[in-house]
Amino acid sequence: MRRAIWAAVAFSLISSTALAENYPSHPITIIVPFAAGGPSDAMARILAERMKTTLGEAILIENVTGAGGSIGVGRAVRSAPDGYTISFGHLGTHVANGAIYKLGYDLVADLEPVVLLPSNPMIIVSKNAVPAKSLKELLAWLKSRPAPPTAGTAGAGSGSHIAGLYFESVAGIKLQYVPYRGTAPAMNDLVAGQIDLIVDQTSNSISQVRAGTIRAYAVTDGKRVESAPDIPTTDEAGLPGFHMTLWSGLWLPKGTPKEIVTKINAAAVEALNDGAVKKQFENLGLQMPPKDQLSPQALGDWQKAEIAKWWPMIKSANVKVD
Ligand code: MLT
Known about the structure:
alpha/beta; seven-stranded mixed sheet; two-stranded parallel sheet; single chain; 12 helices
């Protein structure tokens, strides 16, 4: 019996070392838990295009949507810990959802942090039909509505939902949330005037704002977005302190060999340092992560700190999910 156990341990060590040495030997999949064409999808595709050069294998994007992104993350958690299924996520999927859903998995214990990715200041945008030209006028209009105005989100727990909850609490307003499988489809309905507003990721709204198909009121950051200098901050626009940037990251299933985590981290860091990639991200209004925060450990520590920060607010909002 003891010999059998040692044999098994030896085998798993040999196999994981062999696995790591030959990694990657076939295409890799990044699971994006929101609809194609949205901010998470856009960031993952830009990153994958550059990471495949370093890793020498194709990287496919699979959009597995629903339940605020928790279904896509669950799929990644349950996949083999061999480096071929990577979980893309953010403050919503890898922090907020743990305070809202009975996930069936643990966001810290069941996932290996790999790398912190760029963050996105949020932006308050509305359909053009809203009779308001400033944040102050928007707040007056929102408060004058007989019924709560409709706010598009990517589902309970998503970035756009958490930002909506935060907006409600700092502005003293009530919103009626309309969930979509991502903010890409929500944006289509905002442009069409089907919903009133979104507290969106800047990278998702910026092209529509530039096209004049929706109206922007403020970005939820202490400084203006370089690629959209005409949009005031919430401090400047009359909602001081309403600050929120949505950070993203990559994770792997727990038990993935450390050597593979290191290889994927290195490929992601190389992509983040690539001039062309940085240009694309900055043009979308994204903020690059600090250079000393790019280790797997740094993401793990940051995720735990954000859980401690956000769960009390989210739990006090008493979000109902089916
Ligand atoms: C998306 O890609 O649709 C977003 O990340 C959704 C969100 O969290 O608001």
